Amino acid sequence: MEKRAYKERIIYQIYPLSFKDSNNDGYGDLKGIIQKLDYLKELGVGMIWLSPIYNSPMKDNGYDISDYYKINPLFGTMEDFDTLLEETKKRDIKIVMDLVVNHTSDQHPWFQEALKNKDSKYRDYYYFRKGNGKKPPNNWNSAFSGYCWEKVPNEDNMYYLHLFTKEQPDLNYHNEEVIKEVENILKFYLDKGVAGFRCDVISQIYKTSLENGKFSLFSRGREHYENQEGAFKILERFRREVLDKYDDVFLVGETSSLTPKIGQEFIDRRALDMFFEFDHAFCKSFKLVPIFKKPVYKAKLLFKPIFKWQKEVSWIGAYLENHDQLRSVSRFGDEKKFFKESAKALSLFLLSLKGTIFIYQGQEIGTLNYKNLTYEETDDCMAKNATETAMKMLHVSKRRAFKWVNDTVNRDHARAPFQWDDSINGGFNEGHQTWIKINDNYKNINVKNEVNDKNSILNFYKKMIHFRNHSDTLKYGSFEEIKSNSYVAKFLRRTNDETLLIVANLSNKQIKDKKLDETKEILVSNYDKHENKVLKPFEAIIYKIK
Ligand code: GLC
């Protein structure tokens, strides 16, 4: 298999707002990231994906960009970004940018100009359409609930399209100039030396038609804009015209409504190098019957969908957490009795999968959901919209609606400030107010405690990352599932030279397994001692088959 940086290196996602606040203004920043590069080097990661750092009014925390060529002053300056590039280079760490080009912010000068002047060329950068009688132009709804058409102020019966919030108008990829603008953005950052892009909601950029969508509660209309031939063609063009002119750069796509066949087509056509799937991320939250009960979870709900993708596509972005998801130990592990064991088992499981491994900031210390968040303390626009929609549709109180949202989709669980130490605000800053509250468990769960504890989750992550960095079998070997049950995931990673067997009990039950340990050598395990033919709760092992 061809050796590429994205296949060799583990990627660490930074959510800049919450990583490290160097100037005590309550928001994380680039200087803060620079201060922590040695920590990341020591952890063993080879690339950093930065969630958006561009100018933005922050209605969706930077996923609403008002200038692609400027750094958001909250995070610093272009000079700081250049310093970050230099400092990462010194440490042999590469930078991956977030490319958010399905939409811009409504404050972007293109959109502002389009609003002001109907004859401006920027009008056609977006979707402005006449309403259908008194109704919006079509029946699509937004991923963030409600219609995805907003009335244009001071114009009669005129709307614009936004698949996300109304402050995120969608760009029109039927317009050649829009495509050129994006090529220029790509070139600008590639010239600076970035290693690739994580392409936000990239499967939705091309709207083939604006006809009404089929009946569906969520994302109605998606058959007209998900994974369209037009999107493939545009990405192929980015590859040909831009990416191929640089050495060893890559694209990872955030995709949705995907089948393995379509996913593989993205790779085969070199439209993307890999993509994220969401089957496992939603394995729990949307299985709510009845809707207000806490979802029940069994380990195989997590690993079945992951294995499906592992088997059916040649490469993938493998992850358990990101800035849009709940914390993985809170969802799939055990926050109390087997906290450490479960966090380590998830680490071993993830870091043994095929594909490029993504670790989200804080995952490496076992950061948990922030259970006691209230509606008022929540910043996430999606959680707020979802609460209001649930109140209206189901006629329930705000408290009840928010409780459900908080248990299932509140993205702030993953966005609370990073827990560096046990000082005030967990060392995120020196005690000044923070943009959202820090999780109150920071006195126990923090980097400082874990660095000094040889049995910590952090030190286990380091060990697993080191193991993977030195294992061609984990990086390039094939993936084969072998008989798993509801609790235990089992799979092989194989090259011509070596076969590894990964066994991960992702449950709090002790499991007996007669065949375990036959002619195998333990290479890594999350328990100090292994008892023959028994898997303790959340015990996970990498064996070498002799
Ligand atoms: C992606 C981002 C998410 C954002 C949305 C709209 O899903 O990960 O944070 O809200 O796109 O840009």
Description:
The protein has 546 residues and is of the alpha/beta class. It contains 16 helices and 20 strands. The chain has helices spanning 5-8, 30-35, 37-43, 78-90, 109-116, 176-191, 229-241, 260-268, 299-312, 328-332, 339-351, 381-394, 398-408, 447-451, 457-469, 472-476; strands spanning 11-14, 47-50, 54-55, 67-71, 94-99, 128-130, 149-151, 158-161, 196-199, 250-254, 274-276, 317-319, 356-360, 478-481, 488-494, 499-505, 511-512, 520-525, 534-535, 540-545. The strands form five sheets. It has an eight-stranded parallel β-sheet. α11 (339-351) packs parallel to α15 and α12 (381-394) packs across α13. Residues 286-290 have low confidence and may be disordered. Alpha-D-glucopyranose (GLC) binds at residues 60, 63, 100, 164, 200-201, 254, 323-324.
How much of the polypeptide forms β-strand, as a percent range? 15-25%
Query: What is the number of strand segments?
Result: 20
Q: Strands of the biggest beta sheet: in what spatial order?
A: 11-10-9-5-2-1-13-12
Can you count the helices?
Answer: 16
Model regions low in confidence, pLDDT < 50 over at least 5 residues: 286-290
Helical/strand content category: alpha/beta
Chemical compounds bound to the protein: alpha-D-glucopyranose
Oligomer: single chain
Task: Indicate the overall shape.
Answer: globular
If you average the pLDDT, what whole number results? 95
Task: Indicate the radius of gyration in whole angstroms.
Answer: 23 Å
**Proportion of helical residues:** 25-40%
Largest sheet: 8 strands, parallel
| N-end to C-end Cα span | 24 Å
